[in-house]
Specification:
With 542 residues, the protein is an all-alpha fold. Helices cover 68% and strands 1% of the residues. It has helices at residues 2-12, 34-45, 48-61, 65-89, 95-103, 106-141, 154-159, 163-171, 184-199, 201-227, 242-247, 250-254, 259-263, 273-302, 313-320, 324-358, 377-393, 401-421, 440-455, 467-486, 490-503, 508-532, and strands spanning 174-175, 178-179. A two-stranded antiparallel sheet has the order 1-2. The chain crosses the membrane at residues 37-59, 65-84, 178-199, 211-230, 242-260, 281-306, 326-348, 373-393, 399-420, 432-453, 465-483, 488-505, 511-528.
Length: 542
Amino acid sequence: MLVSFHSMQSSLFRTKNPNELHTEVSALKRTLTFKDLTALGIAAVIGAGIFGTIGQAAYDGGPGIIFLFIITSLGCLFSAFCYAEFAASTPISGSAYTYAYISFGELIAWIIGWDLFMEYAVGNMAVAISWSDYFTAFLKGVNIEFPLWLSMDYFTAVHQKSAAAQQAYVHAPRIFDFPVIVDLPAILITVLITILVYIGIQESKRTNNVLVVFKIIVLLLFIIVGFTTVNTANWSPFIPNGWSGIFKGTAAVFFAYIGFDALSTTTEECVNPKRDLPRAIFSSLLISTLIYIAIALVITGMVSYHDLNVGDPLAYALEKTGLHKFAGLLSFSAIVSMTGVLLVFQIGQPRIWMNMSRDGLLPKALSRIHPRYQTPSVATVLTGGSIILPLLFLDLKEVVDLTSIGTLFAFLIVCAGIWLKKEKIKTESFTVPFIGGRYLLPVTMLPVLYLYLHTVSTENVFSFTQIPLYSCILAMIATIFYGSVRNLSLLPGIGVCLNLLLLSTMHHQNWIRFVAWLAIGLIVYMTYGRKHSVLAGPSTKG
């Protein structure tokens, strides 16, 4: 019995030898340069956040919202350092999944791969729905009415009480008395992006580069034109609701910065990944942060922060200041921006599946490379299908926050993985600068934890809903203690702690959904992945 237990434990936590990963590199086309990678990162980071959530964040925090973007970008910087080291020293794609396989072993790698599937799938669906909303609003702005029954999902039309949902249900055509209601724009853009990603990374990068250049030009024009209408009186008070108001939007704003996760899935298509991937990760983070700060400063100067709790804050600010013609261009830019986000995430998901398939954890067909286009063809088609089918039926507003938990969980594992990786691989590529954490980790993180606990409103009596909060806090204390005793690297330790803090802010219902999703994944792994794993060897694959 004891031998059997140790055997299972050994199989669950078997790791890949990082020094042998070069033998796994596939026939993907190496075409991405530093410029292309930076554009991919910017495309993923500057998306819905700049055109939507920045309004809610400004409403809560006022002009001082610029501090939120600075602090959030610094928080992401610690994760970015860890991603950059893994990306530079790991010659294959796979993102956090591959990095977890190297550092933690097969079981954690599977959990991260399963987690990334949910993160990318739900994220892509949400972006597709947002794209559809912007597209139909843009058509309405040029006096083209798009049928309501062709612009929302079935369950929204049936169950919501809004006037638009009721009209869609009433006016929808029937087949055997069943209303035909479908979000056609969301489905069509997903199909088009899937085709583009299928036919080649070169075509995808060219399209993305054009989209990013257009988006940056429009945003720079907004900053320049908007600055001419700034009323400095709107900047007073600069922090109207205190620091609690600023930090209220931390979790939401954080997820505007997840682009470097998708970047790390393109390793095998980079011309020089060791040099270009770390540079692109930091460059896209810096450029995006500067644009976010400038936009936040200008928009809160154009109109009062009281008025920015709207779905399209940039367009609203232009309308309020009389710049009506430019508002139409901005709405079109939002569509372009959403397209770029969808493109980058559609590139990332198939490459994660491809690597899981190579390792035997998923069926072999998913690692098939198209002989002409040199892309993971089956995985790309399956990715598109996994997005389109739920779009036909589901209202995703209830589960979009799962993307937030999934992203933070992946960031946490990558940061922690650097601590383990140091003992397994030496690299001449980019590495996280070593700063001993024996004293600095508790000195920097314990005050942060103390201040955080004073901003969290908890019930006097412990309840079930507080389990995620206290679990994350205990995990953070354990991380500080472990890193201090072992004198481990400071920057990854701070990354782990900050990700735990953000995870603690997630609603308990989303934690329940997340744990349920991971439980399903564990069943799949135990019944298929563990037995078919390449590391299991031929003797266990009966």
